[in-house]
Structure formats: structure tokens, C-alpha cells
């Protein structure tokens, strides 16, 4: 009874309170660093918003103006500014007797009639839409309502606690706001129903004066709540069959021969492959059988540029990616994720870790270890080496003069070195310093077009790519770099798909990498996939960007021709985007079989993991996936995955996708359990 009385009192408070306080300010923190603000200024029924976040030299800069009705719902809303990567925003929403209409970067839309949704989820606005919607849901009988442009938002209470600050102790409640995207948002409201904080595992936006007190507790809470959700998905979706599993009637992709086998049966016992035998083999008692129906079994793939979180971990496994090289993370967060994957609590790939080292500057990335001297950078290398990291990754703000000694120490300790080209240096200098691998094709090519003193710690490292079309690949400066890479056996991880997205994606149409899967996604996700990444203020600038991407592919094709090892990784979270990365590799002079071999066995060899991974052979770990088509003829076949085995734990991706609101890509697999 007491809880019901408290709930009624809280609801009465919400209904009686004004929609928002007159002025509120919130501070944004990443790894305890203040990276920006959200400021709300209400005058009567109008609200002005100033939202500015900057981390690693980039972030959204947004201004909003709203007019509210008497109940606090928006009737007019304008949103202008720039997205994280500089795309211009001019978004609007209005609602009247005839209905609701809006315009964002994906295009215009409207819902006619007096019953059109009263609340709007912005595409590129500040978190104010979440704050207003959460408050409105508190006053709704079932805490559920339709939202424009689409979807039904739901609010579920998850936690209560209090924080001390300049206005005294505040009692706050954290809610799960779901129904608007693949993953819920965790929003914390005060007793009036106003926004107190918005938190995730690595970020918090909290009421000014309370941000330090709320930072770790609410981030930990968000991580805990998200973990519970992914643990539930794992519990419902991961199949661990008793006894051996025999997958019948499949052709196996052999990455050594770069061809498919004859029809075969593959047997898994525990975590490993116990047999690869001709089709029609005799099963033993107690086996589960899976009918492959003449499809193809492909070794688990390697995504070589991840920054793993729980969602990415799940989506990669479902996409046939059973191994990921993490290229920089919050070390303690990744520790926890690896531990939970290892225990089977959540789904995820095998993770190979890179030790992220960044120099301290106003543009520093809040990842890994920040260092202020060469000695600190060398200490960071030793710290990572002692904990078994595969390589060190050096980043933009590190002083390039430190590189030779930092690299030498990494090599002495048995670690490789990869990374960005630090600002005010070039790929040539990092190759001379001993880099084993250059990360991102723009980082490689910028040294051919930059002028002395130009700073690549900002968005300039993206916009300067507009200079690429004029490059002569036979010029001395280009051939010098490529010759050095060949001579020193320096590899390159180009992340082609993210450059395609940044340079060629247009507002209002699906981005090139999403064309094959966008129709399967929920409406809110489709909306996000129909906008440019890098802003282009004129048609000429966009034309220059598109020409730059053509030059990038021409450069990579020349590198492949020269025998430089190109490594497939996305820096986009992997999953569906990794499939696009492989398609783009296929435009560099590689056959589909070449690409699949590169994504499987060759990457296992690159990471010295080929004794256990990379091919489907007796004794190796049971990492593979089943598709109905022939990927050696058409690489798009890998996009219709029916089953994934990650160390003998089996997933049927479409079962999980349905729980996330994603439409299936294939048909169910026939599984026969052993008879008692």
C-alpha cells in the first residue's frame, strides 16, 4: 500500500509541476572529463536549447527553439547546428489540428489527424526530446504512447536513489525508456519529473553541480541494466546442445584452397570440431543433427577494428564474426565484457586487445591511457605488455618524436605497434619509426596532401580528404611511402566502409553500406541510415568527397597489387557494416574467395591464432556460420546467415533479430534433437 501511495503522490507532483524549470544546465562527462553541456532556458511556453559536446576534436553543436502547448507538449520545434562529423542540421517539427509534420535529414514526413502523436523523437537534437517524453510518460496511465515519426515509447522504473549537490539532496528515479531504437535509453528524473541525468556505461549528462556525484553510480547502473538485458537475450537465444552436434549436407569454404568442398558433414563436440566427414555419415547415439540443406559452412570471420560494447558483441556474433580485434577501449569496461563473454553470460566474439595510448591535449580521446611524456608512453606500453595485449595503438595527440622509442620498447616486449599518424607528422615518419601497421586510409594518405603545420586532431582530418582527387599515384611522394611499406612489410587497415559512409552518403537516401539491410531494420534505425556523415555545404564539396573516395579505392587497389597486406576492419561496430567492408575489398582486385580467405584464415594467421581458428578442421574451435548460398560466387551470400556456432554455442540469428525488432534475413534451420 505504501508504494502505491508514493506512486500516486509522485504522479500528482508531475501533473502539478511546470513542464520544465526556468533554467537548467547539465554537464557532460566522459571518463570524468567535462566534455560539454546542455543548457535549457524557458521563458513562458518557449524553450531555448544550447547543446555542445566535444570529445576527440569532434561532437554535436546544436541549437533548438521550442514552443509548448498548455500541457507542455511541443507544437513547434526547430533544430539547427552541426552533427558530430559536421553535417548541417536543419530539423523541424510542428503539430496542429490537422496533425503532425516534420523534416529531418532523412526527409519530410507527416501524420494526419487530431490524434497524431503529441511528442517527437528528434533525429539530431539534444536529449531534451528524451526528457520531455519521459516526463509525459510518467503522467500517462500505462506509461506508453505513440511518438512521431514512429514507434511506441514505454517507460519502466528501474532504480531509486538520492544525490547531494548545490540544491541539497535530490531524490531521483531511473527509468528505462524503450521502443524508439534497438536499445533502450536510461533516463533519470527528479521528483518533479525533470531530467536529472542521462547515462550509459561510458558517458553521463547530469545536472550541473551533481555531475561528479552522479557520474560513477549512474554509469554503473546503466551498465548493470544493459548487462541484464543482454544476459536475458543470451539466456533465451544461446543453444548448448547435449552431446555432439552433426551439421549435415554442407559445403565447407576452405580458405587455403579458396574453394568449396564436396558435400560434407561437420561434427562438433563441446567447443571444438571433432569431425569433418563425407555427407551421409552415420550418426552416433545422443547427437543433435542440423540439416544444412546443401548450404555453405564458412569459418568465423575476424573484424579487425572494433571498440567493443555489449551490443556490438552480440551483433558481431550474429553476423558470423566470431573474433574481433579491439582497437581501443576503456580498459576496465573491456575487462568486464571479456569476462562475461568467457563465462557465457552474454554473447560475444573472441577479443584480441590493443593497448590505446594517447597524448594529452585539448583534443585527446578519452580512451585507454593518456600520457604527457615519452616516459609515460613507454610505461603505458609496459603496462599493456604485462597484461598480454597483442599490440599498442598510438593515437593523434601523441608527440611523434616519442614514436621511435615507444615502438622499440613495444617490439622488445613482443608487441606489435599500429595506429593513427600523430598530428604534425606523416605515415613516412611512422613507418621509419617502426610501425607495423597504419590504421585508416585517410591517415595514410593525408601525408601526401597536407601543408606543414596543418592540424589533424580536429575534423580537418576528414575534410582534408577533399584534396585526394588530385593525387598522382605515380608521384615520388606516393611511391616513396608504398615502397617503404613493401620493404618493411608494413600492413594497412584502411576501414574502407567508414570512408565510403563519410564521403559518399547523402541525406534522404540509404547510405551505400546499408542498402541490403535497411528494409529489415526498425523505422527509427532506418531514419538514422538515411543521412550523410560528413557535412558538405556545397554540391562541389560533395563531388570532391565522392571523387576522393574513388581515389582511395584506386590507392588501395595499387597497394593490393604491390602485395601490401590490407586488413578488414570497420570502426563502425562491425556486424552488418563488416559485410559491406568485405564487399569493398572485392572492388580492389580480390575475388570473393580471396576476400573470404582474408577475413578468416589469413587474419587468424596475422594474429597467430591459426592453430585454433580460421578454418573448419578437426581439432579447431567450432567457430563458423551457415548460409544458403555460395559466397565464392557472390559475396552477398554472407548476408543471409541461418546459424552461427561460436565455440560450440549455437545461435540462430533471426530468432534474436526478431527480439530486437529486426526482420529475418533467411529461413529457419531444421534441428533434430536426440531421441531418448
TrEMBL record:
GO terms for molecular function: hydrolase activity, acting on carbon-nitrogen (but not peptide) bonds. InterPro entries: Amidohydro-rel, Metal-dep_hydrolase_composite, Metal_Hydrolase, Metallo-dep_Hydrolase. It comes from Novosphingobium ginsenosidimutans. Residues 316-643 form the Amidohydrolase-related domain. SUPFAM superfamilies: Composite domain of metallo-dependent hydrolases, Metallo-dependent hydrolases. Keywords: Hydrolase, Signal. This is Amidohydrolase family protein. Pfam families: Amidohydro_1 (PF01979).
Amino acid at each position: 500500500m505504501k508504494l502505491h501511495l508514493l506512486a500516486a503522490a509522485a504522479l500528482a507532483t508531475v501533473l502539478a509541476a511546470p513542464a520544465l524549470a526556468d533554467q537548467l544546465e547539465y554537464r557532460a562527462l566522459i571518463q570524468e572529463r567535462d566534455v560539454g553541456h546542455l543548457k535549457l532556458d524557458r521563458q513562458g511556453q518557449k524553450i531555448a536549447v544550447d547543446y555542445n559536446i566535444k570529445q576527440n576534436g569532434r561532437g554535436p553543436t546544436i541549437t533548438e527553439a521550442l514552443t509548448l502547448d498548455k500541457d507542455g507538449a511541443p507544437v513547434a520545434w526547430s533544430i539547427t547546428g552541426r552533427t558530430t562529423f559536421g553535417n548541417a542540421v536543419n530539423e523541424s517539427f510542428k503539430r496542429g489540428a490537422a496533425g503532425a509534420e516534420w523534416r529531418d535529414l532523412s526527409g519530410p514526413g507527416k501524420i494526419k489527424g487530431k490524434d497524431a502523436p503529441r511528442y517527437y523523437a528528434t533525429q539530431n537534437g539534444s536529449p531534451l526530446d528524451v526528457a520531455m517524453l519521459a516526463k509525459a510518460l510518467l503522467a500517462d496511465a500505462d506509461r506508453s504512447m505513440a511518438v512521431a515519426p514512429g514507434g511506441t515509447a514505454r517507460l519502466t522504473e528501474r532504480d531509486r536513489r538520492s544525490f547531494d549537490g548545490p540544491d541539497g539532496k535530490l531524490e531521483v528515479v531511473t527509468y528505462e525508456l524503450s521502443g524508439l531504437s534497438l536499445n533502450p535509453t536510461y533516463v533519470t528524473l527528479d521528483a518533479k519529473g525533470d531530467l536529472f541525468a542521462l547515462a550509459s556505461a561510458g558517458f553521463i549528462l547530469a545536472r550541473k553541480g551533481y555531475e561528479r556525484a552522479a557520474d560513477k553510480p549512474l554509469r554503473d547502473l546503466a551498465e548493470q541494466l544493459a548487462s541484464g538485458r543482454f544476459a536475458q537475450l543470451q539466456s533465451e537465444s544461446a543453444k548448448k546442445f547435449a552431446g555432439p552436434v552433426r551439421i549435415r549436407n554442407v559445403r565447407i569454404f576452405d580458405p587455403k584452397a579458396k574453394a568449396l568442398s564436396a558435400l560434407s558433414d561437420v561434427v562438433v563436440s563441446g567447443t571444438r570440431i571433432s569431425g569433418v566427414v563425407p555427407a551421409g555419415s552415420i550418426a552416433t547415439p545422443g547427437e543433435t543433427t542440423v540439416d544444412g540443406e546443401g548450404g555453405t559452412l564458412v569459418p568465423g570471420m575476424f573484424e579487425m577494428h572494433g571498440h567493443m560494447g555489449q551490443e556490438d558483441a552480440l551483433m558481431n556474433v550474429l553476423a558470423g564474426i566470431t573474433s574481433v580485434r579491439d582497437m581501443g577501449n576503456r580498459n576496465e569496461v573491456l575487462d568486464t565484457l571479456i569476462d562475461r563473454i568467457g563465462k557465457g553470460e552474454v554473447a560475444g566474439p573472441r577479443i584480441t586487445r590493443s593497448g590505446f595510448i594517447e597524448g594529452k591535449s585539448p583534443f585527446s580521446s578519452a580512451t585507454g591511457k593518456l600520457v604527457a611524456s615519452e616516459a609515460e608512453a613507454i610505461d603505458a606500453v609496459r603496462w599493456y605488455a604485462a597484461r598480454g595485449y597483442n599490440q599498442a595503438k598510438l593515437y593523434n595527440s601523441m608527440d611523434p618524436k616519442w614514436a621511435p622509442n615507444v615502438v622499440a620498447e613495444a617490439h622488445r616486449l613482443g608487441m606489435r605497434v599500429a595506429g593513427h599518424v600523430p598530428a604534425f607528422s606523416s605515415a613516412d615518419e611512422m613507418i621509419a619509426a617502426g610501425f607495423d601497421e597504419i590504421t585508416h586510409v585517410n591517415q595514410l594518405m593525408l601525408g601526401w596532401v597536407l601543408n606543414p603545420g596543418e592540424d589533424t586532431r580536429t575534423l580537418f582530418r576528414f575534410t582534408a580528404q577533399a584534396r585526394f582527387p588530385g593525387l598522382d599515384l605515380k608521384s615520388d611522394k606516393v611511391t616513396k611511402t608504398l615502397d617503404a611499406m613493401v620493404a618493411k612489410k608494413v600492413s594497412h587497415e584502411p576501414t574502407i566502409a567508414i570512408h565510403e559512409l563519410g564521403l559518399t552518403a547523402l541525406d534522404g537516401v540509404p547510405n551505400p553500406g546499408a542498402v541490403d539491410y535497411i528494409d529489415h531494420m526498425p523505422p527509427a534505425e532506418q531514419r538514422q541510415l538515411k543521412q550523410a556523415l560528413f557535412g558538405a555545404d556545397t554540391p562541389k564539396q560533395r563531388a570532391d568527397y565522392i571523387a576522393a573516395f574513388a581515389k582511395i579505392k584506386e590507392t588501395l587497389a595499387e597497394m593490393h597489387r604491390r602485395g601490401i597486406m590490407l586488413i578488414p576492419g570497420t570502426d563502425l561496430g562491425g556486424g552488418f557494416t563488416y559485410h559491406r567492408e568485405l564487399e569493398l575489398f572485392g572492388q580492389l582486385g580480390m575475388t570473393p574467395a580471396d576476400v573470404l580467405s582474408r577475413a578468416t584464415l589469413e587474419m587468424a594467421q596475422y594474429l597467430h591464432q591459426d592453430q585454433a581458428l580460421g578454418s573448419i578442421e578437426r581439432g579447431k574451435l567450432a567457430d563458423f556460420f551457415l548460409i544458403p548460398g555460395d559466397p565464392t560466387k557472390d559475396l552477398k551470400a554472407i548476408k543471409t546467415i541461418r546459424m552461427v556456432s561460436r565455440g560450440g554455442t549455437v545461435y540462430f540469428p533471426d530468432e534474436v533479430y526478431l527480439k530486437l525488432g529486426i526482420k529475418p534475413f533467411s529461413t529457419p534451420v531444421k534441428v533434430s534433437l536426440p531421441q531418448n
